[in-house]
Design a protein that fits this description.
There is one protein chain. With about 550 residues, the chain is of the alpha/beta class. It has 17 helices and 14 strands. The strands form three sheets. The chain has an eight-stranded parallel β-barrel with strand order 1-2-3-4-5-6-7-8, surrounded by eight helices. A three-stranded antiparallel sheet has the order 9-10-11. α2 runs antiparallel to α11, α6 runs parallel beside α7 and α13 packs across α14.
């Protein structure tokens, strides 16, 4: 990197729009969505999708609710053309779905594109040519007037062929993109767009789409919004246009640019699932749609099974969804931090109890994961940064082990130390094994062999046998319950003096064969406290085992 980048680079100039309106606006409805996964996304793949993969992607996009889908560049290759024909001839396109195709302003390409659309119900023909100073100078070597001539000529060639589609019942909508609009002088973008409008003659009853691509993201999102608002306010016959956005993510702000562009007056958004596209990618439509959703706006798209959609995306494109990708990533609804876990657990408990506010307000969760088909057990995961709340949540949500609060405080640090030694995240099963090792399987030096208790008028007498260092001891004791009687019996041995100060028990699972788990806390004569846990199908034996577990941990 150079020491003085201003000698090589410059900031994008701001737009003179002192009375801009977009900063004071609020989105109230979702835009028109157009998926370009099958064209713009496909062209960015190292190995483009084959026809069967494109068909699977198309069906998934339809299921999500997309009503406009750019299916390809049919003049670019035989695969693209064949895909179009298969969609149409096999009648795979629902009646309420419009397919969109892209074409450059060249007669042979336009002719091939028209051929690919014969027999379709509803189509959008998308014409484009590049307009920025760099494109005019470097790629085409043409003047502004010559670039306008290319656009006008392409528009006329399409218009001359429309009757071949319309006479067979095809509904056609026309779309024009001054490609690289983001780097084009606004006055020139307006001029070339109006030249195309002069050819196509859109009306309020039969609008055309004016797509304003942020082909390469060269400015901050507020500048992009100013560009869109300037065009919306200055283009002629705005009421005859559907103004569309097509942002890329070169500066990492494609989502912000799109949302501000909608505030600036745009009606429509083109993008891809999870942002697949050239360089840093296209706009991630899932993110913008779910941002609408979290503000109470129906996106008119269904992402209720986001995991399945991500699997389809990987299967068809070979791409993966990054674990931190908004809404869809594996870790976006996951908390490792102990304080975060505790807040999430309490927030979800508040909703379960029916005492939460009417609208969603759970700490650290912008939306309910279940709305996307995600499960609460995915929300909290345990590593060395986790606290007692995360440990307790995982044991309860995966295995029904409901630790008392004070036991959470005791086991949490022990579990975190063990995880820290491993140096990685642990699964619920591993965490359960840690608990069993520390509490349930503690059988030395004391182990239960036999226990029986009878009670009359609130007084219980127990008879038990225990192993101490391999030697069997037969003991008896009395108390106001089986646990108290057993503690009294142990008091007659060489066990250190203790008292039971807390006890909790619940079922693990359901049915006649379900086990019970008991938690017992004891306090020694010198004030030391320890928890123990016991598991047994006999609800009387589980707490007795828990007493011995605590005693073994007291040593």
């Amino acid at each position: 990197m150079i020491a003085e980048p201003f000698q090589k680079y410059r900031a994008f100039p701001v737009i003179d729009l002192p009375d801009r309106h977009w900063p004071g606006r609020t989105l109230t409805q979702a835009p028109i969505w157009c998926s370009v996964d099958l064209r713009d996304g496909n062209q960015a793949l190292a190995v483009p999708m084959n026809v069967s993969q494109k068909l699977e992607m198309f069906d998934a996009l339809v299921k999500c609710g997309f009503k406009e889908i750019e299916v390809g560049f049919p003049s670019a290759s035989n695969t693209e053309f064949a895909f179009n024909r298969r969609l149409i001839e096999e009648k795979r396109i629902p009646e309420d779905v419009t397919i969109q195709v892209l074409v450059q302003a060249r007669e042979d390409l336009i002719e091939r594109t028209i051929e690919s659309l014969m027999g379709a119900r509803r189509v959008i023909i998308h014409l484009y040519n590049s307009t920025s100073p760099a494109q005019r100078r470097v790629v085409f070597g043409k003047s502004k007037e010559e670039i306008i001539g290319i656009a006008r000529q392409g528009a006329q060639m399409i218009k001359d062929r429309l009757s071949r589609l319309e006479d067979t019942g095809t509904e056609v909508m026309l779309q024009y993109s001054p490609e690289s609009f983001s780097a084009t002088e606004l006055e020139f973008a307006k001029e070339i767009s109006e030249a195309v409008m002069d050819v196509w003659q859109p009306t309020p009853e039969r609008k055309m789409i004016l797509n304003l691509p942020d082909t390469v993201e060269v400015a901050m999102p507020n500048v992009h919004a100013d560009q869109i608002e300037w065009m919306c306010r200055n283009i002629k016959n705005r009421e005859s246009l559907v103004v569309s956005l097509h942002t890329h993510n070169d500066r990492g702000t494609g989502v912000a640019a799109t949302e501000l562009g909608l505030l600036a007056g745009a009606d429509r958004v083109e993008g891809t699932l999870f942002g697949n596209g050239e360089r840093t990618g296209n706009l991630d439509i899932v993110t913008v749609a779910m941002n609408c959703y979290m503000h109470g706006i129906s996106p008119q798209l269904d992402f209720s099974n986001i995991n399945h959609l991500a699997e389809m995306y990987h299967r068809t494109t070979g791409m993966t969804v990054p674990p931190r990708q908004p809404y869809a990533g594996e870790l976006v609804f996951t908390a490792f931090s102990g304080s975060h876990q505790d807040a999430i657990k309490k927030g979800l408990a508040e909703r379960a109890a029916g005492t939460a506010p009417e609208h969603w307000d759970v700490p650290y969760l912008t939306i309910d994961p279940s709305d996307l088909g995600r499960e609460y057990r995915e929300v909290i995961r345990v590593n060395s940064q986790s606290g007692k709340g995360g440990v307790a949540w995982m044991l309860e949500s995966e295995f029904g082990i409901d630790l008392p609060k004070d036991l959470q405080r005791e086991f949490g640090p022990l579990a975190n130390d063990a995880v820290d030694r491993l140096g990685r995240e642990v699964s619920g099963t591993e965490l359960k094994d840690m608990f069993w090792h520390e509490y349930v399987d503690r059988r030395l030096p004391w182990e239960l062999k036999h226990f029986h208790a009878d009670g009359v008028d609130g007084v219980f007498e127990c008879r038990a046998s225990v192993l101490l260092g391999g030697a069997e001891l037969r003991i008896t004791g009395r108390g106001n319950g089986p646990i108290a009687a057993f503690a009294a019996a142990l008091g007659q041995t060489e066990a250190p003096p203790f008292e039971v100060i807390d006890f909790k028990q619940h079922a693990l699972g359901a049915g006649a064969a379900a086990s019970a788990i008991a938690y017992v806390q004891i306090k020694s004569a010198n004030g030391q406290k320890r928890w123990g846990a016991g598991v047994d199908t006999n609800i009387e034996l589980a707490p007795v085992k828990a007493v011995l577990s605590a005693l073994n941990r007291l040593g």
